[in-house]
UniProtKB/TrEMBL annotation:
Localization, UniProt: Cytoplasm
The organism of origin for this protein: Vulcanisaeta distributa (strain DSM 14429 / JCM 11212 / NBRC 100878 / IC-017)
List of residues binding sn-glycerol 1-phosphate: Y173, L174, E175, A176, G177, S178, G179, G204, G205, G226, T227
Family: Belongs to the GGGP/HepGP synthase family. Group II subfamily.
Name of the featured protein: Geranylgeranylglyceryl phosphate synthase
GO MF annotation terms: imidazoleglycerol-phosphate synthase activity; magnesium ion binding; phosphoglycerol geranylgeranyltransferase activity
Primary role: Prenyltransferase that catalyzes the transfer of the geranylgeranyl moiety of geranylgeranyl diphosphate (GGPP) to the C3 hydroxyl of sn-glycerol-1-phosphate (G1P). This reaction is the first ether-bond-formation step in the biosynthesis of archaeal membrane lipids.
Cofactor(s) recorded in Swiss-Prot or TrEMBL: Mg(2+)
Keyword terms of this UniProt record: Cytoplasm, Lipid biosynthesis, Lipid metabolism, Magnesium, Metal-binding, Phospholipid biosynthesis, Phospholipid metabolism, Transferase
One Gene Ontology term from the biological process aspect of the record: glycerophospholipid biosynthetic process
Protein's pathway: Membrane lipid metabolism; glycerophospholipid metabolism
Residues that hold Mg(2+) according to the record: D23, S52
Length: 254
């Protein structure tokens, strides 16, 4: 089974899945492996690997080849640039920053990456992703020259998300930015989810089980946490459980 189908299957089973984002720029290769195995043990459904700045192709190969074979959950690249590809991953989020003001981040980097995927990385499964930056925006908002959607403008988020669905993206990601002071608001998530049927990923600034559960209940199909596992790994077990419980509760209500 491909990675996209696996994610869809897990979403159907548990209502909402958890994905852990590890940034090779922030941890050593040894810590990377320990954290990846730890989140797998606690039930995280997939590992995303990326960062906005500071990762080289050689570093990705080194970190990922060291976990290949010992991880059962899929490794999905979350590239901050065309250089962030590695044959040791299972899939790549083929992302487009829909609300960037610079066409390079909407389609320019992607045409460069597409050639590499055909010529050098045939084993990577591309999963197209509409990446919509909200609120704080974090490093990714700055680097991709995004015009972040204000936290309270559900109507604009909805317009972007529905556009993404019409354009045929596999998945939609509402991103407040890594380490955001405030995550995307549950009301925005629930309004987008009411209209859009594509899997909805939510991330940025989610630091506790309560917020994770609230967003899963509001309609997030996948919750991403990154910074918390680097800073307070002891919290991750409860966050993963909260996502799955929130997802199951929403599924029962539906
Ligand atoms: C489609 C392919 C293969 C490449 C293009 C990739 C593009 C357009 C990237 C531009 C947008 C960008 C910078 C995305 C970064 C996504 C990401 C890894 C976010 C998480 O990083 P952060 O955590 O925000 O940043 P830190 O480095 O501060 O942790
Ligand atoms: O690091 P955090 O704040 O968990 O954000 C994760 C992810 O949404 C960033 O791309
Ligand atoms: Mg980060």
């Amino acid at each position: 089974m491909g990675v996209k189908d696996y994610l869809l299957k897990r979403i159907a089973e548990v209502g909402a899945i958890h994905m852990t984002l590890l940034d090779p720029d922030k941890v050593t290769a040894k810590e990377f492996k320990e954290l990846a195995l730890m989140v797998q043990e606690y039930g995280s459904d997939a590992l995303m690997v990326g960062g906005s700045l500071g990762i080289s192709e050689g570093q990705l190969d080194e970190y990922l080849s060291a976990v290949k074979g010992s991880l059962k959950i899929p490794v999905i690249l979350f590239p901050g640039s065309v250089a962030n590809l590695s044959r040791y991953a299972d899939a790549v989020f083929f992302l487009s920053v829909l609300n960037s003001a610079d066409p390079y981040f909407i389609v320019g980097a992607q045409i460069q990456a597409s050639v590499l995927l055909v010529k050098r990385f045939r084993n990577l499964e591309p999963i197209s992703l509409a990446y919509i930056i909200v609120g704080d925006g974090g490093a990714v908002g700055y680097v991709s020259n995004a015009r972040p959607i204000p936290y309270d403008r559900d109507d604009i988020a909805l317009a972007y998300a529905y556009t993404a669905q019409l354009m045929g993206f596999d998945m939609i990601y509402l991103e407040a930015g890594s380490g955001a002071r405030e995550p995307v608001r549950p009301r925005m998530v629930s309004r987008v989810k009411q209209l859009v049927s594509k899997p909805l990923i939510v991330g940025g600034g989610i630091r506790d089980p309560e917020k994770a559960s609230e967003l899963a209940l509001a309609g997030a199909d996948a919750i991403v946490t990154g910074t918390i596992v680097e800073e307070k790994p002891e919290l991750i077990k409860d966050i993963i459980r909260a996502v799955h419980e929130g997802g199951m509760t929403r599924k029962k209500r539906a």
